[in-house]
Known about the structure:
Helix content is 56%, strand content 13%. It is an alpha/beta fold. Strand 4 (69-73), helix 2 (81-88) and strand 5 (93-96) form a beta-alpha-beta unit.
Amino acid sequence: MITLGLDIAKTTVEAACWHAGRAVALGTFDNTPAGWEQVRTAMRRLVADAEGSADVEGSADVEGSADAVAVVLEPTGGYELACAVWAHQQPGWQVHRPNPAHVRQWAKSQGVRSKTDAQDALVLARYGAKTELPIWQPLASEVSALEQLLHRRDDVEALRHQEQRRLEHLALHPDAPPAVRASLERILQTLDEERAGLDAAIAAHLAQHCELHAVEQRLLSVPGVGARNVHPLLVTLARYHTLTCGQGDAKGLVAYVGLDPQVHQSGVSVWRPALISRQGNRQLRARLYMGALGALRGDNAVHAFYQRLVNRGKAKKLALVAAARKLVVWAWAVFTSGHAFDPTKCAPTAAS
């Protein structure tokens, strides 16, 4: 299988290919469907030239085929998404989207010091050829649409928070112009209307897709899952399920969310308290933490789990983070089983 490394910017694509044991730069192309086709043409021309050279020399030691391609590209703020979907649709092609931090650390371990678009494409081609990577799958269209609606709602909420802070700060100035206050109030009213409209659009989208609505209702049966975190949690579970091709487990999901403990220990003198890795979506972790905190007010499985840890001498904040992790594990069980949360299955055990 040929490895195709693509470093994608807003308007350009830098392409490189790992073929016959070496990395070869293919050039710079437009980040458009026509440019992607030119990348494929350049790659096929490279393979054809290599096969021709092998025939002339009487050797058949040529690796790869232009019909079996592993495309390696990094997330670049969404600029790569259309190209990734296009590559996914090509017969025999596999798409990989590795973590940019992992790629950069690997490049440093290989002695690569410079960083340019052309160099990054070569690194991606080498990295894909030398590393076993999970295959990327696009989200289902209904889940992707829900994710975009949630992102837009978060943006509007952030804007509203900023304008509300400005209005509060303006009240501290007795000589503030009335026009400024009126402007802020108009913008706040507009943002309130936008937020209400997005809430209605999200509700209509879930009502239109019965399967998503059913998953939402099952997740709401988990203590600590409510209106503020159910939809981001639903999208995260669906994304993890897609990334792992349905083979993921709860432990992997906890690491994907960033609630897994990081142990730092060496010998008998180097030791640090285990902290969570903080990988993945920071906002989702905050919502899960607040969900677990809210669940402590009631008589439920989260509260019981938290109290058991505190009774054993665990710090309250540590126990609360552990409760947020347990919330993720239960949500995954509900998501994969297709059944609502059953508190009777959360009885205390020696491991809990």
